[in-house]
Amino acid sequence: MSLAARLLNVFAIPGEVFEVVKASRASVGNWLLPMLLAMVVGMVSAISILSQPAIQGQMHEQQAKLLARQVQAGKMTRAQADQTVALVQKFTVPLTVIATVMVSVIRVLWWAFVLWLLGRLFLKARLRYGQMLEVAGLGTMISVLGTIVLLLLTVKLAHGSATPGLPLVISDLDATRKSHVVAGAVTVFSFWQVAVLSVGLGRFAGAPFLRAAWLVFACWVLQECFFSLLGFGQMAF
Fold this sequence. Notes:
Elements: H1 3-9, H2 14-23, H3 29-50, H4 53-72, H5 78-121, H6 129-157, H7 178-184, H8 188-205, H9 209-229
């Protein structure tokens, strides 16, 4: 199975893809190319979404709400709040692009470590980190597709909460509320990616899918809760 076939087949037949990967020599392309694709697609999506006037207006409104609460609490003055708004508007795009690149790299490395650790501790499998790096890399293709869908939905609906998941059914989504930030992390593609990673872990560890899935899902929930409390739920997977 060629690299291109592995990148495409991971959407439909991940089990067969990981069996091929397990039986083949280690391939850097299995994780490096998906990582690069995630970077490029993420940067293009971020720039395209943040350039939408409607999205800019929604972001400014959310920022104004958050800063107004800080002013009311006496944590900053109105002048400081105005300066903060100006700085945020100036550096939002470049900082988002930088964050997208960093998240694309860290996400693959982190999940490779998580899968390796789960396999070692709970499945008692002699896994190598490089193997799990290939699993995490190929699983990133689900995230790439999710980012493309997010871009299309955001442009079509002209709303920053147009993610393929719970945010679509929340009419008054407020990024300053922790419960809504947590909801923003729950998308169809998140569950899909958890399933694909679970398939990969199960195939390499020789464990049943459900056993691997519970472990991966539990780690994903803990991770999403942690990052959502910090306000970065949708960047976490």
